[in-house]
Hints:
Elements: H1 20-32, H2 37-45, H3 56-77, H4 82-111
Amino acid sequence: MRALLPAKLLRMKFDLYLNEQERFFIEALARKAHLSMSCFVRKAAIGQTISAPPALLTIQQWEKLGRAVDDLNQLAKTNRDPMQSQGVIKRLVEEISSVRLAIVSKRVGNDR
């Protein structure tokens, strides 16, 4: 069982009164930022930056890079046969190169 958080770390409930239009507007902004309404209002109220999550292509690129990092960690931790390692390294280079190409071409496309 997980230990309870100390009282000073717990959030307290706060009532906020909005009219229908205000609530609709804030909900739309929160959805766009992929945040709960509570989280969105809290961040906005204390002046934290609220940004939209990365585009799907970028998320896929991060996942690809994450897998590459996992593979690199496995290579570092194990003593593999050099021939097996060459295959893994070649695949990693291809994955990283494809992500790099997608990022560069996206950046070039935005410069136009």
